[in-house]
Amino acid sequence: MNVPNKITISRIMLIPIFILLLSYPFEWGSWTINDTELSVVQFVALVIFAVAAATDWLDGYYARKYQLVTNLGKFLDPLADKLLVSAAFILLIDLGSAPAWVVIIIISREFAVTGLRLVAAGEGIVLAAGKLGKLKTVLQMVAIIVLLLNNIPFNALAFSVGDILLYAALVITVISGIEYFVKNWHVMEESK
C-alpha cells in the first residue's frame, strides 16, 4: 500500500475518535470568546476534524506529485471524505448547528454518487471526482469547521458565516451531483 492510501486510511481512523468526542458527554469545561461559548471537547473534536480534512489535501497532493494515483486511492479518498463529512453533519444536527433537511440532502447526494460509483466499479470503471466535486468537499469541510467553532471569530457580524457556508455547500453539493450523473450516465446505460 502506498503512502497516499495510508494517509487516506489514517483519515478514516480519525472518524470514530471525532464521533466519540461529540457524542459522549465529556465535561472538559468551556471558553467564552467574543460572548460565544465554545466547549473544550468541541474544540478538540474540531482539531481532529481539521487534521482529518487536511489529510484529504495531503494524500491527493502526494499521489499526484509522485504519480501514485491508484484505483484503490480513487475509491478510498472519496469514501473517506463522505464518511468524515457525513459524521460531522449528523453531529452538527445534534448540536443544533445544522438543519436536518440540509444534511439529508447533502448525505442523499453522497449516497447517490456512491451508488453510481459502485455500478461503475461493477463494470470495471473507476470514476474519479471532478473539480466541482472537489470544491463541494472543501466548502463542506470549511462550513463544518466554522459551525464547530460556533461561528467564532465571525460572531460579531450581523449574519452567520457558518450558515452562509453551509448553504453555499448545499448548492454546490446539489449542482456537482447533477453534473456527476450527467457526465457519467453512460455507466448506467451500459449496465442494463
Summarize the structure in words.
- This protein is mainly alpha-helical.
- The chain has a single domain (3-190), classed as CDP-alcohol phosphotransferase transmembrane (TM) domain (Four Helix Bundle (Hemerythrin (Met), subunit A)), CATH 1.20.120.1760.
- Helices cover 74% and strands 4% of the residues.
- It has 6 helices and 2 strands, in the order H-E-E-H-H-H-H-H.
- The chain has helices at residues 3-23, 40-65, 71-95, 100-122, 131-148, 161-190; strands at residues 30-33, 36-39.
- Strands 1-2 form a two-stranded antiparallel sheet.
- A hairpin with a 2-residue loop joins strand 1 (30-33) and strand 2.
- Helix 3 (71-95) runs antiparallel to helix 4 (100-122).
- The radius of gyration is 18 Å and the shape is globular.
- The relative contact order is 0.13.
- The model has no long low-confidence stretch (mean pLDDT 91).
SSE blueprint and pairings:
Layout: H1 3-23, E1 30-33, E2 36-39, H2 40-65, H3 71-95, H4 100-122, H5 131-148, H6 161-190
Antiparallel strand pairs: 1-2
Spans with pLDDT under 50 lasting ≥5 residues? none
Rg from Cα: 18 Å
From the N-terminal CA to the C-terminal CA, the straight-line distance is 34 Å
Mean pLDDT: 91
Largest pleated sheet: 2 strands, antiparallel
The CATH architecture designation is Up-down Bundle
Q: How much helix is in the residues? A: over 70%
Q: What is the succession of H and E elements?
A: HEEHHHHH
Domains (count): 1
Structural class assignment: mainly alpha
The third-level CATH topology is Four Helix Bundle (Hemerythrin (Met), subunit A)
> What is the 3D shape?
globular
Query: What name goes with the CATH superfamily?
Result: CDP-alcohol phosphotransferase transmembrane (TM) domain
- Number of separate helices: 6
Q: Kindly state the number of beta strands.
A: 2
Name the beta content range.
under 5%
The spatial strand order of the largest sheet comes to 1-2
CATH class: Mainly Alpha
